[in-house]
Write a structure and sequence with these properties.
Blueprint (H helix, E strand, L loop, with lengths): L1 H9 L1 H42 L34 H5 L14 H20 L3 H23 L4 H14 L8 H26 L6 H14 L4 H21 L12 H26 L2
Amino acid sequence: MTELFHLFESEPLLFAFACGLLGLVVGSFLNVVIHRLPKMMEREWHAQCAELSGQTLEPSPRYNLFVPRSACPHCGHAISALENIPVLSYAFLRGRCKGCGAHISMRYPVVEAISGLLSAYAAWHFGFGPAAVAAIIFVWALIALTFIDFDTQLLPDDITLPLLWLGLLLNLNGVFTSLPEAVIGAVMGYLILWSVYWMFKLVTGKEGMGYGDFKLLATIGAWLGWKMLPLVILLSSLVGAVVGIALIVIAKHGRNIPIPFGPYLAGGGLIALFWGQTLTQSYLQLLAP
């Protein structure tokens, strides 16, 4: 194991390649998380409501991230190991179920590919060490949150809160920033969007965003520090505005239909993770006399 670590340290491209392969495999699991976690949350909510109302629910089959085995939703065909190879299986099957020929969503290889590419880039960018490992975990979590929010407009606490605490723990040793800046970042991240939420609600009487967005920005602040928050907010707002306008104009997306903000926060967080220092320094140099 020590020799492998030395090899990864001396060969950055090999380390990036290995992390890319790992990212592909984890990307396959992220697809399961994206699909099943909201359903697990919904089941839990139904159980809690039934308990509060004194109702008795009939026992339901076991359902979590590992059980039951993945299967085609159309014919129930169980997905074999050979049919679950990241990206390649989708290509070999030509995007269709082996059992019934039903179309398989392009979402699955896209998530796998994004996970693999970003994992490889994080390994190459930070080099072998704790920062690379932490960055890859951060990437995986943000991918899952992004696609869950797109599908359900939910940012599960089961992901954001452990990620927030992990960011603070990592910065005990200053992996990405100092601990004081991480703590202030977590507090500021939450309070900034919390304040925007209440100002918007007082003015319009409507809710402009969810509490999950507050927690996600707090998490990004805990990982990267408070100094990165302006950049994250600016980037996410710009991308969100462009995409929102495009959806309204091109896709005829109704103005009253809410657009999730979490994916844009996640995108801003990833940009800040990789290039935040460079962008901030360039901006300050432009302002310098």
